[in-house]
UniProtKB/TrEMBL annotation:
<feature type="domain" description="OmpA-like">
    <location>
        <begin position="104"/>
        <end position="221"/>
    </location>
</feature>
<keyword id="KW-0998">Cell outer membrane</keyword>
<feature type="signal peptide">
    <location>
        <begin position="1"/>
        <end position="18"/>
    </location>
</feature>
<dbReference type="InterPro" id="IPR039567">
    <property type="entry name" value="Gly-zipper"/>
</dbReference>
<dbReference type="InterPro" id="IPR006664">
    <property type="entry name" value="OMP_bac"/>
</dbReference>
<dbReference type="Pfam" id="PF00691">
    <property type="entry name" value="OmpA"/>
</dbReference>
<dbReference type="InterPro" id="IPR036737">
    <property type="entry name" value="OmpA-like_sf"/>
</dbReference>
<dbReference type="Pfam" id="PF13488">
    <property type="entry name" value="Gly-zipper_Omp"/>
</dbReference>
<dbReference type="InterPro" id="IPR050330">
    <property type="entry name" value="Bact_OuterMem_StrucFunc"/>
</dbReference>
<keyword id="KW-0732">Signal</keyword>
<protein>
    <submittedName>
        <fullName>Outer membrane protein OmpA-like peptidoglycan-associated protein</fullName>
    </submittedName>
</protein>
<dbReference type="InterPro" id="IPR006665">
    <property type="entry name" value="OmpA-like"/>
</dbReference>
<keyword id="KW-0472">Membrane</keyword>
<dbReference type="GO" id="GO:0009279">
    <property type="term" value="C:cell outer membrane"/>
</dbReference>
Length: 221
């Protein structure tokens, strides 16, 4: 019993670490690092859920906790493995200007708006949609996912105008995904305007970073 409690405490601690850091000391070059992280996070989450569902009997509660940890670990590892695989494929397919971040529970594909749109325009430049189409084909290959397409701007101009522009640009990217056959029901289009900068709006370089469209790929649980 003491051994089980110690094991679950360790899993929970590692799982919380994974949630806050994205990994638990795994080699950042390990192509399976998110599968391992997902297993730990899933185990911690499953252990907590199992313990809450275990009732008042201490023995039953401990058994439910262990069972929850095992189920959670398997589910978390499966999600992490899927993300690792999809990330590797996208890195091979997409251009160098596209950033891909794997957080362990989602993929965030970031495309600078400067390479997609002319200034003050929500019309995609036709010769620069290939990367978006590649993402669309990836979404078709991994059907058990949903997607958020999120537009962002810098702080130049009126906030209301920037919000509208970011929404229209996100919709333009989403339209390319649906033209590749991705069901519209799997896509949520969001405009954030200037509200979520990732760099300072006081410099041209920072503004360039803030003008972006993010395609967030979320595995269904």
């Amino acid at each position: 019993m003491i051994r089980s409690s110690l094991m679950l405490s360790t899993i929970a601690a590692l799982g919380l670490s994974a949630c806050t850091t994205g990994s638990v000391g795994f080699d950042q070059n390990d192509p399976n690092r998110q599968a391992k992280t997902g297993a730990l996070v899933g185990a911690a989450t499953g252990a907590i859920a199992g313990r809450l569902a275990g009732g008042d009997d201490k023995g039953e509660r401990n058994r439910a906790t262990v069972a929850g940890a095992l189920v959670g670990a398997a589910a978390g590892a499966a999600i992490g493995n899927q993300l690792d695989k999809q990330e590797a494929e996208l890195r091979q397919q997409l251009g160098n200007q596209v950033d891909i971040r794997n957080t362990g529970d989602r993929l965030i594909v970031t495309m600078p708006q400067d390479i997609l749109f002319a200034t003050d325009s929500a019309t995609l430049q036709g010769n620069l949609t290939g990367d978006i189409r590649d993402v669309g084909r990836s979404l078709l290959a991994y059907p058990n996912t949903t997607t958020q397409v999120i537009g962002h701007t810098d702080s130049d101009g009126a906030a209301a105008y920037n919000l509208n522009l970011s929404q229209r640009r996100a919709q333009a990217v989403a339209n390319v995904l649906t033209s590749e056959g991705v069901p519209s029901g799997r896509i949520q289009v969001i405009g954030r305007g200037e509200d979520q900068p990732i760099a300072s709006n006081l410099t041209p370089q920072g503004k360039r970073q803030n003008r972006r469209v993010e395609i967030v790929i979320l595995p269904n649980t």
